């Protein structure tokens, strides 16, 4: 059986290093906001041109706290792609802001920059581009629009650790780069975790205050905050895994090139551009008979996933939101036809060649 994801196998190569670091944390007696979080923040910052970094409790919180830091008036509008993961939209709603869904490009699956301007109103305050599946959005176009209309940019980098566009890493374009370290992500913790890169030092200070009850100094609270801290033990694990991030990404890129070169053309494969260096958090294909393809693969011992089966505007939780009432046909087309193939650090070249062989007989 080739499983879509097997986290035990993904982490096996790092088990000795992870054991050592967990013993260090236990022995340190410091479990919240201690030396390991500080160290990981430095490591992650160094990986991103020394942009200031704050560890938080999750990817959802990373976006939520970035938006909170901007202190927009409630009911301000925030531009977000219509095919994103639910968390991006939740972070906007949790700030009493209004998500304005913009359709993606059907080839890259990322927000279509040419459709952003027509969705900007006097109440628009920010754009949250999502680097879906490990491909960075067309940030040069997005930055130009943000500058023209004086909008903040919060990049959702949950699927794009180390991905590049025009030789620049995800998270280094916007005012904020929000990351998730959910265990399946390219840089995955052994539990929940997240981080925010903030270019502006005063934003970074606000984030560090917000994540800790709004307290800048113990028992002194200037603002209303959260409890959203990255755990010491997860920070220690993440410093170990960050050292291997390029190796993890390179492995996934190698597997992606096998799919790209050998899958027959019946399947719509991910777009490739010389501007992008993709890290393939997800390798998706599209096919009109997606559901029977998924079933066929499972019958042949290959499990797959769908990212995502239901578009945000069709989620029951959002059914009373009038802001999501438009038609989003491109998003629906993607949700109807997309299928994610095995591409983890634990998969071998043989696993992928076998998957390709089975796929090409469909
Ligand atoms: C995983 C993910 C998130 C949320 O991250 P969590 O750590 O699970 O809260 C947000 N946006 C995208 C695009 C994601 O893939």
Summarize the structure.
37% of the residues lie in helices and 15% in strands. It is α/β, with parallel strands linked by helices and 362 residues long.
Overview of this protein structure:
A seven-stranded mixed beta sheet has the order 1-9-8-5-4-2-3, sandwiched between helices. The model has no long low-confidence stretch (mean pLDDT 97). A hairpin with a 2-residue loop joins strand 6 and strand 7 (168-169). The chain is globular and about 65 Å long. The protein has twelve helices and 14 strands. The two termini are 18 Å apart. Helix 4 (59-70) packs parallel to helix 5 (86-93). It has 362 residues and is of the alpha/beta class. 37% of the residues lie in helices and 15% in strands. The chain has helices at 7-11, 15-28, 35-47, 59-70, 86-93, 139-149, 201-210, 232-242, 245-262, 290-299, 329-337, 349-360, and strands at 52-56, 77-81, 98-102, 124-127, 152-156, 164-165, 168-169, 176-180, 194-198, 215-217, 220-221, 276-277, 283-286, 338-341. The protein binds pyridoxal-5'-phosphate. Pyridoxal-5'-phosphate (PLP) binds next to helix 4 and helix 5.
Itemize the secondary structure elements and their pairings.
Blueprint: H1 7-11, H2 15-28, H3 35-47, E1 52-56, H4 59-70, E2 77-81, H5 86-93, E3 98-102, E4 124-127, H6 139-149, E5 152-156, E6 164-165, E7 168-169, E8 176-180, E9 194-198, H7 201-210, E10 215-217, E11 220-221, H8 232-242, H9 245-262, E12 276-277, E13 283-286, H10 290-299, H11 329-337, E14 338-341, H12 349-360
Parallel strand pairs: 2-3, 2-4, 4-5, 5-8
Antiparallel strand pairs: 1-9, 6-7, 6-12, 8-9, 10-11, 13-14
This protein binds pyridoxal-5'-phosphate (PLP).
């Amino acid at each position: 059986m080739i499983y879509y994801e097997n986290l035990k196998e993904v982490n096996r190569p790092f088990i000795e290093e992870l054991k050592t670091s967990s013993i260090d944390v236990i022995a340190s007696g410091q479990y919240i906001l201690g030396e390991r979080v500080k160290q990981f923040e430095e490591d992650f910052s160094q990986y991103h041109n020394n942009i200031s970094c704050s560890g938080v409790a999750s990817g959802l919180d990373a976006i939520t706290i970035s938006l909170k830091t901007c202190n927009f008036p409630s009911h301000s509008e925030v531009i977000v792609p219509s095919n994103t993961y639910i968390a991006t939209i939740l972070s906007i709603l949790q700030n009493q802001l209004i998500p304005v869904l913009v359709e993606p490009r059907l080839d890259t699956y990322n927000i279509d920059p040419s459709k952003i301007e027509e969705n900007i109103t006097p109440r628009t305050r920010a754009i949250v581009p999502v680097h879906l599946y490990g491909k960075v959005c067309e940030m040069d176009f997005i930055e130009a629009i943000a500058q023209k209309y004086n909008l903040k940019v919060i990049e959702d980098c949950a699927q794009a650790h180390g991905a590049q566009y025009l030789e620049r890493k995800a998270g280094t374009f916007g005012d904020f780069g929000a990351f998730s370290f959910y265990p399946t992500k390219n840089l995955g913790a052994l539990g929940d975790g997240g981080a925010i890169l903030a270019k502006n030092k005063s934003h970074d200070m606000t984030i560090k205050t917000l994540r800790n009850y709004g307290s800048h100094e113990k028992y002194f609270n200037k603002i209303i905050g959260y409890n959203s801290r990255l755990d010491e033990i997860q920070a220690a694990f993440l410093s170990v895994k960050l050292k291997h991030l390029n190796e993890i990404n390179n492995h996934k890129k190698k597997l992606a090139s096998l799919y790209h070169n050998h899958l027959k053309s019946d399947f719509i494969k991910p777009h490739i551009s010389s501007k992008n260096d993709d890290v393939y958090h997800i390798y998706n294909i599209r096919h009109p008979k997606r559901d029977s393809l998924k079933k066929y693969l499972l019958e042949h011992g290959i499990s797959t996933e769908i990212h995502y089966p239901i578009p945000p505007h069709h989620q029951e939780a959002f059914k009373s939101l009038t802001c999501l009432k438009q038609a989003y046909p491109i998003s629906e087309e993607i949700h109807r036809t997309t299928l994610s193939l095995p591409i983890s650090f634990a998969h071998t070249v043989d696993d992928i060649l076998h998957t390709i062989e089975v796929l090409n007989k469909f």
